[in-house]
User: Fold these one by one.
Assistant:
Number 1:
Amino acid sequence: MSDARTILITGGANGIGRATVMQFHGLGWKVVALDTDAEALAELRDRLPRETALFLTCDVGREGEVVKAFERVTEWLDGSGIDCLVNNSGIADPYAGPLGELELADWQAWIDASLTAAFLVTRAALPLLQKSGAASVANISSTRAVMSEPETFAYAAAKGGLDALTHSLAVSLGPDIRVNAIRPGWIETGPWQKSGARTHPKHRDKDRDQHPAGRIGKPEDIAEAVAYLHEAGFVTGQHLNIDGGMTVKMIYEH
């Protein structure tokens, strides 16, 4: 049984998940990442030692795959628990197209990838979280849970449901397990994609000027919020906007 703390991250192969994996491993944590992108997971597997990092291909919106993955996770932990769970999986593109053309199967795919997945993974992780004695869960929601662009119905609904699931879990699982949501705003994930998909976009002045913080968000900003919420022992059931202040700034069309 290791003294190192363990974090499990869904959607851990690219973007926010990948940055969180690398940040926590750099802090001395053992890391577990679940994702459907086997190629991106293989890249991470080559970078980090097998003793302290486990990467599993898993569609966390499917119950059978989650059950099977957690059998492997439990075996790998060898009696240890999970100290921090990050429910980060989801479909990144929020745009569904016109409501009249949105198929039920497509709607369900957005819901399952984020909201259903958070339920399935948290339920499966519960015995391991309880072993920690002071565990935390961070659900990666979105500012779109509380504000919308046109034609983002399913994405917004999934993230709004994740916000509600957050406070329900917090009051049900406390005091031993604290549960919070992080609402990212505009986060540039291009530099944190697998090598074949990596980009380094150049943002315009007006993109940066939308943010009182003066810049676009980085995946590292979300990883730092996960770390803060894990250590903040009197914070649970909350929804933390990490958006550079964009959602509190009034923007008029000129």
Number 2:
Amino acid sequence: MVEKLEKIISQSQNIVFFGGAGVSTESGIPDFRSVDGLYHQKYDYPPETILSHTFWEERPEEFYRFYRDKLIVKGAKPNAAHLRLAKLEREGRLKAVITQNIDGLHQAAGSKTVYELHGSTLRNYCVKCGAFYDVDFIANSTGVPRCPKCGGIIKPDVVLYEEGLDEQVLSGAVSAIRRADTLIIGGTSLVVYPAAGLIRYFRGDHLVVINMQPTNADAEADLCIAKPIGQVLSEDVVVDD
């Protein structure tokens, strides 16, 4: 399986990677949809409710308590998958990473062209004056974080449920997928829309799915690998041409 993947990679000139939570779980970042993820918790509401725009507006204290506790992960480092993707970009084979993750680990690994569909915890802005604050400001604040300059609420640059995706990010991701000769889908169950719908723009030669569970794209894929993605992308395989 991995040998077949490496052969596809070696023959491709325009790879795009589309990834989700499974890419970061090997860096110790939990997937809040997994059974042992964030569901068995001390909160009165499911994560999807807490991470909604309405909840952020109506119960900001509870929102930020959950957000600090669950979405800001200290000390997470890029894993083998992030590092291999960055290497493929340096080699000129991979043209873009499209991610549903909000942890910034692709950039930390060295990837340059990254479309963050759901934003990033590393960027935070005052809703009143637009001042920028880093992740540590939110992590070290208590209650509802307020802007020292104007007193406005500081909101993470993360797309909450009920909010639309950034149009520029979306159009960049669509055009990257349209141009790709190979699309590798990894670590995502393809259930979160509109992000999951982007793969329908792919018209290239090879569709590869690397995910522990079945996905909606498996039927169309040339290759499906049910293994942890870091393991798959780090396996050293010699490919015979």
Number 3:
Amino acid sequence: MKKILFCIFLLSASMMFAENLKTIQDKKVLRVGVFAEQPPFSTKTSDGYQGFEVELAQALASGIFPDGGGKIEFIGVKASDRITFLQNNTIDLLIATLTKTPEREELIDFSIPYFTVNLAILTRKADKITQLSDLADKTIIVEKNSIAEKYFDSKGYKLVTCNSAMNCYNLLKEGKGDGFVNDNLIVLAYPVIDSSVEIGVKNIGSTDLLGIGVQKGNQELLKIVNSELIKLSKGGFFAKAFNDTLDPFYKGTAEKKYFLLDDLYRMFM
């Protein structure tokens, strides 16, 4: 009981130190957590971060700093620590292919979704994996604290965990596992750059939603993020990103339905 009360105290204390919208606007700095090795969403280069989720953060910042003058500080996160970064006020927004789940909603707040995803398995072509049963009694590679880890652990699979998608891919190449499972939008990137791998199994489990994470209770910031997402959709931001950036990157292998949620956004317009 004492342990539970202590955890509640720590969570409450972290929320008190969240930077609200006015504080962010006064400081003119928006701290955004993104992945460092997750093309085409976000990648750290010698010139800074780039990718779709970086561009999304920049577009949102124009609404958060309507008079200009504000800047974004991008902070690299891993799947295992990204929610903690929000809770301890290291970042203001988390834009890192974050799937919305009931468990995570108890820890942080989510924006309205901007993408949908299913799990998929990246495998070596030589292994000829075409269905999930081909991986029975084999080793699955997953990012720590990911939806994939939870799903395959519940099914009793033998798992190897890693700290980033690129790390997982490298483990697959090294033969440390027989399949790397992640959101389909993430693993689809690897056959584009490596012809020796393929998506052996597509669309595992239920369809999930990706949203932007905000510290629990930071309602003013969440409200403006949601408002700006609606404006961006209405203005064609997501359609343009798909046509100009995402579809060319995936070389036509990504389905538009995962990227364009026009029907959902019409509910808010």
Number 4:
Amino acid sequence: MPRIREDGDLMLQVREVSHSYGKRNWLDRSGARPPVLANISLVIEKGECLGLLGTSGAGKSTLGKIILGLEKPTEGQVLFQGQDMYRASKSAMKGLRRDLQVVFQDCYSAVNPLMTAAQIIGEPLDNYERLSATDQRRVVGELLEQVGLKPEDASKYPHQFSGGQLQRVNIARAIALKPKLIVLDESISSLDMVHQTQILSLLAELRASYGLSYLFITHDIRAAMTICDRIAVMDQGLLVYNGSGNEGIVQSEHPAVRQLVSSILPEHPSDRIPFG
């Protein structure tokens, strides 16, 4: 029999979220802007990796901002660990932010170029922990090793790292507080294939070690099928697919899903998966 999911199993609940940016400017008489998101509902269980896919403009990055608490939705709720993120007190929100971290697409713009790796990784520790200088150096060194770098890399500046290495620094910062959920917003799309594979492997290892949950926002269906337990697909602000296993998404008849799947089809037509 299938397992009955309890609310206690849920790390994140997005309930009927809609969002729009209001009316157009006074020179544009074409009316209100269409909604960016319309009635989106999804969940992430504890320890689960949910892939959120869609082409540019589908609404996935806006949804990511709403989940991170950066942009209040026009309608609906976002519950993280059972708490409504937009009704929580300041003290409760501080605790939620500790458990909810993010890794962005552009690893260079996500850091201060004048800060060393030790300072970058140490930022969340400074905000939430009271470590001595000796303990902080030890923790930063351990985090660097956990993401495949060396403790001596702590003294390096962003320009001294490759893109893949600097993204590892960003990941080390994201796991510094042992969060419950990490939002990975196109976090491998700016890397070459070799570094993408390495980062995906690292994310899988960290997830197993820490019991992390991931929201993996991407347009890359190959990456999503590699790391995700379930995949949700957005199109023009709507959630058009939400399922587990790779077979279901391959068999979906929705045009937006088929477009994503077509990007991984073999080059020779005879080897392609028929869509019926």
